[in-house]
Design a protein that fits this description.
Layout: H1 59-63, H2 67-72, H3 74-95, E1 104-108, E2 111-114, E3 117-120, E4 126-128, E5 133-137, H4 140-146, H5 154-173, H6 189-208, H7 219-231, H8 234-242, H9 255-268
Parallel strand pairs: 1-5
Antiparallel strand pairs: 2-3, 4-5
């Protein structure tokens, strides 16, 4: 769904994160070297388009079918990542005798009204439990480099999307209900939930190739994800914007923690490895 210039929903609830589309016509296993490069393409085709559960064939659905499409167009690549992430978690839930609920990504510019309330692009990508949607201002991908100092690259984008879908997984498992009363601090439940979402992003990355969801994932790709995770650590952002670090106001975790938990998920490849709620983090 693309609502750039439009508003959605009514206020209420609490957004998580700060970065689904259903299994559309895009054939994920054809995304040859999807994350290995390619041009940025044209995001205009997402304008006023809904791509998700119940989607009717449209321009994005019909044009984003192959790995070549994903290499040439950023909109196709982003749709491919979302499909891949949801395909993976659908399989995980099914093997556990549960059903994964497909959801949508809403692309917006500048500001958006959600069931969790109004949000501007300043908050970055986020997940709203009240309407179970992932919200992404596509300009954030540029800010990863210009504002946060990340190296950038296609897998940095994939990490952001996989992290936010980690929150959707948490919501379905009831994890987010535990976080509401403990929103900041170095050992807070908020930080633990964000680190778990980082770990879940790593788990997806570890399984994407073996599951046939993409053909190739290089160490350079993984390094892009690790770099992006580090770039948006609370300590690094505070140092850059305030000139000092205050752990008591952390909401997402330090650069070292975010890098470590993403790496843990990638190295072990199992959701069970992502228990950030027990012991020290």
């Amino acid at each position: 769904m693309d609502v750039r210039g439009r508003r959605l929903g009514a206020p209420g609830g609490l957004a998580v994160g700060g970065g689904g589309i259903g299994l559309v016509v895009l054939v994920v296993y054809l995304l040859v070297t999807m994350l290995g490069g390619g041009g940025l393409g044209d995001l205009g085709t997402l304008e006023n388009r809904r791509v998700g559960p119940g989607d009717t064939p449209g321009q994005v659905s019909s044009e984003c079918r192959t790995g070549e499409d994903a290499n040439e167009r950023q909109d196709c690549r982003i749709v491919g990542v979302v499909n891949s992430v949801q395909e993976f978690w659908s399989g995980v839930f099914e093997r556990s005798g549960e059903r994964y609920q497909l959801t949508e990504t809403v692309f917006f510019t500048d500001q958006v009204q959600t069931a969790c309330g109004f949000a501007s692009s300043q908050v970055g990508p986020f997940y709203c439990p009240a309407d179970q949607r992932v919200y992404v201002d596509l300009g954030f991908f540029d800010e990863l480099q210009s504002r946060f100092g990340a190296g950038g690259g296609p897998f940095a984008q994939a990490y952001v999307i996989a992290h936010e879908y980690g929150h959707h997984v948490q919501n379905q498992l009831g994890v987010l209900d535990r976080v509401r009363g403990d929103r900041q601090g170095p050992e807070s439940l908020a930080v633990r939930s964000e680190l778990q979402a980082d770990c879940y992003a790593g788990v997806w990355a570890a399984n994407a190739v073996e599951a046939g969801l993409m053909e190739e994932l290089t160490q350079a790709d993984i390094n892009e994800g690790i770099d992006a995770a580090s770039a948006i650590g609370d300590d690094r952002i505070q140092e850059r914007t305030q000139g000092q670090v205050n752990p008591e106001s952390w909401t997402h975790g330090s650069s070292e923690q975010r890098r470590r938990w993403f790496s843990r998920g990638y190295e072990q490849g199992r959701p069970a490895a992502c228990d950030t709620f027990s012991g020290s983090i």
